[in-house]
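dumping this here before i forget
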Amino acid sequence: MWRWRTDETLERIDSGALRAASGFCKLAVTGWERHVRVAWPGEANGTIDVWDLDARIKTCSFDGGRSKNDGGAGMCMSLQWLERTHEHDVAQCRLMGTYEDGSVQIWDARKANEALACERWHEEAVVASDYEPKKGIVATGSATGELVLARWNHAEANLVHPVKLKVGDEGIADVAIRPDHKVVAVGSWNGKVHFCALKRPQVLCSASYHTSTVNSVCYSPDGKVLASASNDRTIALWSMYNAAEK
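structure:
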């Protein structure tokens, strides 16, 4: 693990005291109370552990097995902190986890008890997720190629206004909401990158370059460029003002 310092240098964080994460789920990192917190899947199936990187201690664990699905939630597939940078620390401690059974769960990292919210919009595993803090937009993508767009209501601590969009027949590996909260990029198992409108959900266009699963999509801070990374060991840069331009 590395920390980006204010002098624009990298500082390696000694993580020797921390247990390695389980599974293939990406880590989720945030900061509150002047400490860096990282969330990752726990050793037990369906659990999430939150660690304080500065103190090198585990602060809490959540049991995702408490899904509405009686069979249990299965593995945790993706994690996102629901941050609000203009608010005080209480808004930084909400954590979203998506699961193998198709459920989306929201937790309060200060309280390792019942989930604040639990929804099951997808029929299959929710492999990817992203969150846009200014508008509170949540995007989730499933193994069946289905994208769900919803909003996180901080005041009432619930997920509202879900809209489903079928992006393709192949599964979704990653999603990224553009910083202007107008477009979401979708990385697919078939190597394509799809661009979908958020206001009136629809697929705007699809771009082809990779020959294998697009595991990661990420926008530049100004939203003008999208980077996509694939199992074929290539990285592509896409101009958002010409979807066919790399």
